[in-house]
Amino acid sequence: MSAGVVVYDGDCGICQASARWIERHIPSLDVQSHYEYGVEELGSVWLVTPTYNYEGAEAVARVLMLSSKRWMHVCGRIMNAPVVRLVASGVYRVIARNRRHISRALGLNACAIPSPKN
């Protein structure tokens, strides 16, 4: 049974790379692009769980806390601490706003065109 679904921006290179990383390292989560999830546009990552929906930096922290690897779990807990959460949210917003430019600068696919659904 899945611990939740991570929904990411399917047009964002950083988001695509992060999704692949989550699939490899946190198999208890399902990972879907916003196209697969049926959302027209997505401004930040979502973690949809049976009990609550998280967004942005809080979603990232919660994803890390679901890892079986201790260091990832600890990083998620630290990110979720009150003062750190404020900083993490600010950093997340800056990265999210500039994700396509950052993706291009890193050589990641920044403007993927979704394949047509059959």
TrEMBL record:
GO MF terms here are: protein-disulfide reductase activity
Which InterPro entries does the UniProt record give? Answer: DCC1-like
**What is the name of the protein in this document?**
Unannotated protein
**Source organism of the structure:** freshwater metagenome
Lineage from the top down?
A: unclassified sequences, metagenomes, ecological metagenomes
